[in-house]
Fold Pectate lyase domain-containing protein.
Amino acid sequence: MDISLTKKTLKTAGLASLALAFSPLYAASLEGYATQNGNTTGGAGGNVVYATTGTQINQAMCERADDDTPLIIYVTGVINHGNTEKVSGSCDTRDNEIQFKRVKNLSLIGTSGGALFDEIGIHLREASNIILQNLHIRNVKKSGSPTSNGGDAIGMEKDVYNVWVDHNFLEASGGETSGYDSLLDMKNNTQYVTVSYNHFYLSGRGGLMGSSDSDDQNGNVTFHHNWYDTIDSRMPLLRHGTAHAYNNYYNDIAKSGMNPRIGGSIKAENNHFERAKNPIGTFYTNDMGYWDISGNIFEDVTWSPASKEHPAGPNPVSTTSISIPYSYQLDAANCVKSIVMQSAGSQKGLKTSNGNCGVH
């Protein structure tokens, strides 16, 4: 894609050299629910700026002509509390998280030089048409010091539409008792999201759709080619709404995997579960959800029914039928582990499946 570099470049020493280093824009192809509701293009066609601090990210948002002007922000280096300050103007930014609030048409993309968000999370609120790509976000805490974004690496809440979360590495260093919450949460009317080629690592909670049983306006979310690695639960926890999970790899899952409940429905196709407890089912409640399952590999898994524990196995069958409104490429389940381990996460060259049990 031909990218017109910049009408406005942030003034920091050495940033001009980043023009030679950034990753190709939208090298990965978008599939899933984010293609619906008018599609998701982020900042395509807008100005391109470069940032090495959180303050510069905030400045880039505040310097747009208006809150809808398309913008692509390329990030290199370490973003943390020490280099993130609130910037005033027509924007609504904060100094303890990267907040996209009441904005549209933005892309936040890590360069090939690496973009690490260290103990600082990304929060989307009343936002639409957003792309988050090739970012490493780690150790965001809700308790202890420093705190950020309620302990979520990425959080979306209140009227968030059309978001693509792609090729990111999201990690924590433990669970809630260590001060962390979730790696990816969607709440309070978050719709039309694709979560693709991300590496979720070492966390008590993968993520949820719906923060409570009354939070019933979330859904239409696709999860594909993600790597859930040493996670306790919530992959995702789904209250109400519909999700589509295909070609994901799950290993070392301690408590539960996909958890549709209170009417939530998930279509699970050609996923690979390895060393996982209760990969699919309704857990921690008797308010049942539903699943449409086919082609999944269950390797060295355990199914443990109990009070308020309703696993789909040991002989899992579908309890509903879900129609998917978009086209997508489905890899064979026996290829998923290899494909995902080569391509999921940041700094993997935005590699994707080549449709023939390999990556390109």
Summary: Residues 1-21 have pLDDT under 50 and may be disordered. The chain has one domain: 15-343. Residues 94 and 152 are 15 Å apart (CA to CA).
